[in-house]
Amino acid sequence: MGKRDKKPEAPAPAAPFHNPFASLALDREALPAGPPPAPVKDEPAKGPARAVVRMERKGRGGKEVTVVEQLGLPEAEREKWLKALKGALGCGGTVEEDTLVLQGDQRERLPALLEARGVRRVTVG
């Protein structure tokens, strides 16, 4: 019984796997340039001239709601604004006639959101 001859070890692969895109990296300079970046607009969003924000409990079973009035938006725009405000505030809400009604007391957080959407004057009452 003699010692067995050791098998010669195979050289270790350079990469852990075969990269099918390695040859594409060599042709990167030959590719056409992409489109130029879009210009950034610094114009503030145009929205209603004013909004009145108030908290209300009457006629709602003691539940607090925040009412946004005097926006002067068409019905389709009111729905879009309500959806955006509900998402930003994390609350529920509805459109009643020409006002937006949001669940809970949102008087502290709501004015900043309205101004970001282009409302020039926000009155909190």
CA-atom Rg in angstroms? 31 Å
Number of helices: 3
What's the story with the biggest beta sheet?
5 strands, mixed
Mean pLDDT: 84
The oligomerization state is: single chain
Strand order of the largest sheet: 3-4-2-1-5
Order of helices and strands: HEEHEEHE
What key phrases describe this protein's structure?
125 residues; alpha+beta; 5-stranded mixed beta sheet
In a few lines, what is going on in this structure?
The chain has 125 residues and is of the alpha+beta class.
Question: Could you explain how this protein is built, in words?
Answer:
- The protein is of the alpha+beta class.
- The protein has helices at residues 22-26, 75-89, 110-116; strands spanning 50-56, 65-69, 93-96, 99-103, 121-124.
- It has a five-stranded mixed β-sheet with strand order 3-4-2-1-5, covered by helices on one side.
- Strand 1 and strand 2 (65-69) form a beta hairpin.
- The model has no long low-confidence stretch (mean pLDDT 84).
Furnish the topology, listing elements before pairings:
Blueprint: H1 22-26, E1 50-56, E2 65-69, H2 75-89, E3 93-96, E4 99-103, H3 110-116, E5 121-124
Parallel strand pairs: 1-5
Antiparallel strand pairs: 1-2, 2-4, 3-4
